[in-house]
Amino acid sequence: MSAPVELIDVAVLSDQWYVLKKYTFDYLRKGGSSQRQVREVYDRGNGAAILLYNRARRSVVLTRQFRLPAYLNGLADGMLIEAAAGLLDDMAPAERIRMEAEEETGYRIERVEKVFEAYMSPGSVTEKLHFFVAEYEDSQRVSDGGGVVVEGEDIEVLELPFYEAMEMIGRGEIVDGKTIMLLQHAALQLFVKWF
Questions:
Q1: β-strand 19-28 against 5-14: which pairing, if any?
Q2: What angle do CA 17, 22, 25 make, to 5 degrees?
Q3: More exposed terminus of the chain, fewer Cβ within 10 Å: N or C?
Q4: By the 8 A CB rule, do 145 and 158 touch?
């Protein structure tokens, strides 16, 4: 089944960080009429996110870092608590997320499990995220993590009891969508017997 869309024009508005384009298109409505629409779409590439968990300790590894858009939209200090994540940069999702986990958290994870994919903001952003989980052990810690300085990363690594991370969602301390989704997945699939 083809999409009910005919592209009329595409204009690049910005390509400074990633690419912002303005699309003009005709959309075929359910009733059969055509409607001209204009939308701006931000293409930053696809990404991957991972929740590291330790079943025996009932803990998870998350990160805390400054996010300018969150700061500009009312997060007082701009510091978000998140699952490790990053853009694919033309790599396979599982390969990229293992690298990202090590860069951000310091844990070298060999085996990752893909749990789902999701479009995070489909009204204006093309990005699709690949979501993973992986169990970690102390022996897999090969560095302090913290991210890549030349990429502007200044990441704090947090190891939290799983129940505490779940309570932080309710208290409004964890407000990152991908992280909430992974923690909810863990509550439903990985740590069911804890509740």
A1: antiparallel
A2: 150
A3: N
A4: no
CB 191 within 8 A of CB 55: yes
Residue owning tokens 């009891």: 161
Who contacts 101 (Cβ-Cβ below 8 Å, separation ≥6)? 50, 52, 84, 107, 108, 109, 112, 134
Of 177, 147, 186, the residue nearest 64 (C-alpha): 147
Report the C-alpha dihedral over residues 49, 175, 81, 83, rounded to 10 degrees.
-10
Q: Quick check: 101 and 150 in contact, CB under 8 A?
A: no
Q: pLDDT for 12-49, tens place per residue?
A: 999 998 999 999 999 999 999 999 999 999 999 999 99
pLDDT tens, residue by residue, 66-112: 999 999 999 999 999 999 999 999 999 999 999 999 999 999 999 99
Residues belonging to the chain: 195
**Strand spans (E) along 29-161:** 34-43, 47-54, 59-66, 79-82, 84-87, 113-119, 128-135, 156-161
Which DSSP letter does residue 161 get?
A: E
What ranges in the chain are assigned the alpha helix state H? 68-72, 93-105, 162-170, 177-185
The residues pairing with 38 across neighbouring beta strands, listed in sequence order, are 24
Quote the tokens at residue 32: 């059969």
Cα(71)–Cα(172) distance, rounded to whole angstroms? 15
